Automatic annotation (TrEMBL):
InterPro entries: Cyt_c/b562, Cyt_c_II, Cyt_c_prime, Cyt_c_prime_subgr. It comes from Orrella dioscoreae. Gene3D superfamilies: Cytochrome c/b562 (1.20.120.10). One of its GO terms (cellular component) is periplasmic space. One of its GO terms (molecular function) is heme binding. Heme c binds at residues 141, 144-145. Residues 1-25 form the signal peptide. This is Putative c'cytochrome.
Length: 152
């Protein structure tokens, strides 16, 4: 029990650090913020997309590998948002983000909640559950992109 509590405390500290680090992030120029968030999304896209073959049944399901990858995704999922500060309009971001901050925050919340559920699914070995949680995360990416990312 003690060990579990210690583990829990440790993971809370890590989560706290994850939230406060990007919030304190400073960018010398608006372009630096744009580059930062695009880089974070590129990594998110990579770590999300690489699970697609498993979810589709085209690659064998290795639960340990999925779990490790989802842990990376959870870390990445907290990163882009601090780089959408005032004055950082541009890149592929729609101006809507700065006009509708509450809506944008809600879209982040939906994403972060669905990534948390994916992490729970990844703790189990059930491919069906993983597939459903993966689909929900994908839907949350798309929902935000539909409203807040420019079509190219
Ligand atoms: C809450 C909103 C939101 C969520 C959730 C979100 N994105 Fe995005 N995404 C954006 C915005 C806004 C941009 C454009 C950023 C820019 O160019 O400044 C973007 C850009 C991207 C890019 C292009 C990065 C580049 O180099 O230009 C990729 C890839 C991407 N997102 C993948 C994903 C994936 C995959 C998910 C889900 C697993 C996801 N995003 C979830 C808002 C979101």
């Amino acid at each position: 029990m003690k060990k579990i509590l210690a583990l829990f405390a440790a993971s809370c500290t890590v989560a706290g650090a994850l939230w406060s680090a990007p919030a304190a992030a400073q960018f010398a120029k608006p372009e630096d913020a744009v580059k930062y968030r695009q880089s974070a999304f590129t990594l998110i896209g990579s770590h999300f997309g690489r699970m697609a073959p498993v979810v589709k049944g085209d690659a064998p399901h290795d639960p340990a590998q999925i779990k490790a990858n989802v842990q990376v995704l959870q870390t990445l999922a907290g990163l882009p948002w601090a780089a959408f500060g005032a004055g950082t309009e541009g890149g592929g971001a729609k101006a809507e983000i700065w006009r509708d901050e509450a809506g944008f925050r809600k879209a982040q919340q939906r994403f972060n909640d669905s990534v948390a559920k994916l992490a729970v699914a990844a703790d189990g070995n059930d491919l069906g559950q993983l597939r459903a949680a993966f689909g929900d995360v994908g839907a949350s990416c798309k929902a935000c992109h539909d409203s807040y990312r420019q079509r190219r």
